[in-house]
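Lecture notes, part 5. Sequence design as translation. It can be helpful to think of inverse folding as translation between two languages: the language of shapes and the language of residues. The source text, in structure tokens, appears below.
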């Protein structure tokens, strides 16, 4: 029997981490799960609790914090590296512990004296949000370069009862497409090599246990805070547990470390919840809220946007822009964003990127009169840019064709007629900084919509080396430099819609453009996926035109606005073309959004699915004392009577008063569901008193409604149920 082992423990409010510590090898993963008692330990060394199976190595090698190939580990290794073919097998022979904050944050330094390298892993468990942030750093201590093929940001243990994984696939115009896979003995892997976070493969997932659902059951989540290539793998281990590795996918040669050099992984943001995936969402929202870099240190109420893209596309003409701004201000828009089409020779998507000055033909007097007009109307001015890109048809490319990422001997592969600039070159970053900074210095611009409309291919740096990682790091540096020079400016991360949404870019930005698809039916689905990881206040959600430009489907103004309402609300249509009734309706929703945003953008979000085609979202304070329930009927019901909606987040010991919430000035709309006596009761000044236990277990009545309609109910706790 070995001497009593040492255990390292981290505890947050509702979760704990336990590692078994060794002085001469990597620590073993013993636990990541719901909160243990302060003094709980596994009691014995893991190796002493399990006899060696037949025909295995004579030495038990359990899952460690950095499982490595060299010590008889046959699963995926957290590190794959070599020195010119040598030192290919790593084994840690020393482990030093550095506590950064007692019981909360520590760094483990694992050294391999034979392969001459050290991996330092930092783990921080946030007391309140239950979010565990892990990152790894590899140091090449040898005197020759080390080629790193894979370095996991973290390896997490998952208990054997896990049975499914919810991840997100997608495409341009349908991000966050939920995909549920069964875990098995086969390796589960999702990987993106597109050079950006991607529409197709969101770097995050939720692993569930049997019976887990939206509001109950044990679930595990992880997300890589990184805007480039990535890979995640879940693999079953010989002891029935799973290991979950997550990290940056390195292109061949990209991980070459010179003697003495090191590489730091992105952060892995992970959490566990026994309150289902809504519980997990709350943890991720709390973590993201803590890291958002708001100007002035705190979020201002999210202003209503009007974005010109779907109203004007490239046809930017000053008179039209001014008229649109007038119409926008008249319905209550607070920030007017001039999208693509304003800069040099940008008459279509084939020219101009890189030439960041106003097009002299379209805007002979520059941006100043537009900015002044918009601000004169009481709105902020925002501007679209796509700094990392260049069109071959541009002054910039003519002057510096070598500034584009490229590989000698290979064709320049364009996408949307554009190439990607090598912004890791100081002269390129300086050029962009100077042009963007000049725009921000010359005009009171409050907001940049920072776009990025293509995947990276042949992303070669000048000497022919891969530049995917360098590009992401250079982007973060450029954003940081601009934000330091112009700290009041907010930035949106857009990438053909939602191709760059992650906790990494959100260290430097304040909003994301969730999708280029503004069709409200598609958006319901996209936004539900989004809300699994990100809070509603950063979710750009606009009311688009009917029929929707991207799908051709038509929905009512009320439905479009009700779907956009919970996010960072905006308008993406030509409000001048609306008939007076539509304009008034939209204005009413804008007024409602302004009233509700303090409650929509704090506290908790719950997403749910009712029976028979209903989906709903609730937003309220953390204890669900005051909740806004948005109910969407997506399809016509298949039952004569719609089944009630069970609302698990409410308190079974309380009563709730319920009112219908309608946009300002709205008549209670006609229609079979709105004329039901239930809605009569919800519209009385005193509302309708309902029992919490009834709402949790039986449910809120949901009158029959037509497809693509929505209604909003406010539920306010109104005291405890009287003792029987
Ligand atoms: C892609 C974005 O997602 C759109 O909103 C718009 O800004 C266009 N780019 C402009 O080119």
């Amino acid at each position: 029997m070995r001497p009593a082992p040492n255990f390292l423990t981290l505890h947050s409010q509702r979760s704990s981490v336990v590692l078994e510590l060794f002085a001469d090898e990597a620590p073993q993963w013993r636990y990541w799960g719901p909160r243990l008692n302060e003094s709980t330990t596994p009691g014995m060394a893991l190796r002493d609790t399990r006899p060696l199976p037949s025909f295995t190595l004579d030495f038990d090698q359990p899952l460690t914090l950095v499982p490595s190939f060299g010590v008889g580990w046959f699963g995926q290794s957290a590190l794959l590296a070599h020195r010119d073919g040598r030192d290919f097998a790593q084994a840690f022979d020393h482990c030093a512990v550095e506590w950064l904050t007692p019981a909360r944050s520590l760094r483990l330094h694992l050294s391999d004296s034979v392969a001459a390298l050290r991996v330092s892993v930092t783990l921080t468990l946030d007391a309140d949000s239950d979010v565990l942030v892990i990152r790894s750093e590899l140091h090449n201590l040898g005197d020759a370069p080390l080629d790193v093929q894979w370095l996991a940001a973290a390896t997490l243990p998952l208990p054997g009862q896990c049975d499914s994984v919810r991840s997100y696939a997608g495409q341009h115009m349908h991000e966050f497409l939920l995909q549920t896979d069964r875990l098995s003995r086969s390796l589960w892997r999702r990987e993106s090599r597109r050079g950006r976070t991607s529409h197709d493969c969101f770097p995050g997932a939720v692993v569930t246990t049997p019976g887990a659902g939206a509001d109950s059951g044990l679930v595990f989540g992880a997300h890589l805070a990184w805007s480039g290539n990535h890979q995640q793998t879940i693999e079953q281990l010989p002891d029935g547990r799973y290991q979950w590795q997550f990290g940056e996918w390195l292109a061949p040669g990209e991980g070459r470390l010179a003697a003495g050099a090191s590489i730091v992984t992105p952060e892995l943001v992970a959490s566990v919840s026994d309150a289902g995936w809504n519980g997990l969402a709350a943890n991720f929202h709390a973590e993201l809220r803590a890291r958002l870099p708001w100007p002035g240190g705190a979020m201002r109420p999210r202003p209503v946007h009007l974005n010109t893209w779907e109203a004007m596309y490239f046809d930017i003409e000053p008179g039209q822009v001014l008229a649109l701004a007038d119409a926008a201000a008249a319905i209550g828009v607070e920030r007017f964003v001039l999208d693509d089409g304003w800069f040099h020779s940008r008459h279509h998507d084939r020219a101009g990127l890189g030439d960041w000055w106003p097009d002299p033909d379209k805007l002979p007097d520059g941006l100043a009169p537009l900015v002044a007009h918009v601000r004169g109307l009481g709105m902020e001015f925002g501007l679209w840019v796509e700094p990392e890109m260049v069109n071959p048809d541009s002054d910039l490319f003519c002057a510096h064709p070598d500034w584009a990422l490229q590989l000698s001997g290979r064709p320049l592969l364009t996408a949307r007629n554009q190439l990607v600039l090598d912004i890791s070159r100081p002269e390129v970053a300086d050029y962009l900084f100077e042009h963007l900074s000049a725009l921000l210095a010359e005009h009171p611009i409050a907001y940049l919509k920072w776009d990025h409309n293509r995947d990276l291919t042949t992303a070669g740096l000048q000497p022919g080396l891969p530049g995917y990682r360098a590009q992401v790091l250079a982007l973060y540096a450029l954003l940081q430099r601009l934000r330091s020079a112009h700290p009041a400016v907010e930035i949106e991360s857009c990438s053909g819609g939602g191709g760059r949404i992650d906790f990494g870019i959100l260290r430097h930005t304040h909003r994301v453009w969730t999708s280029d698809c503004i069709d409200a039916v598609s958006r319901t689905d996209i936004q539900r996926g989004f809300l699994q990881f990100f809070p509603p206040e950063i979710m750009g959600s606009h009311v688009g035109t009917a029929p929707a430009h991207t799908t051709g489907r038509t929905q009512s103004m009320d439905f479009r606005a009700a779907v956009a309402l919970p996010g960072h609300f905006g308008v993406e249509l030509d409000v001048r073309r609306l008939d007076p009734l539509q304009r008034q309706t939209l204005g009413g929703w804008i007024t409602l959004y302004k009233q509700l945003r303090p409650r929509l953008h704090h506290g908790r979000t719950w997403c749910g699915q009712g029976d028979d085609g209903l989906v709903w979202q609730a937003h309220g304070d953390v204890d669900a004392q005051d909740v806004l329930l948005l109910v969407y009927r997506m399809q016509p019901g298949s039952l004569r009577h719609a089944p009630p909606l069970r609302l698990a987040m409410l308190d079974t010991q309380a009563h709730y008063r319920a009112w219908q919430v309608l946009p300002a000035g709205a008549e209670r709309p006609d229609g079979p569901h709105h004329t039901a006596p239930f809605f009569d009761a919800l519209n009385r000044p005193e509302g309708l008193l309902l029992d919490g236990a009834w709402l949790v277990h039986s449910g809120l009545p949901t009158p029959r409604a037509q497809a693509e309609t929505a209604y909003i109910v406010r539920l306010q706790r109104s005291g405890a149920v009287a003792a029987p």
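The translated text above is only one of many valid answers, since several sequences can fold into similar shapes. The first strand starts at residue 6 and ends at 11.
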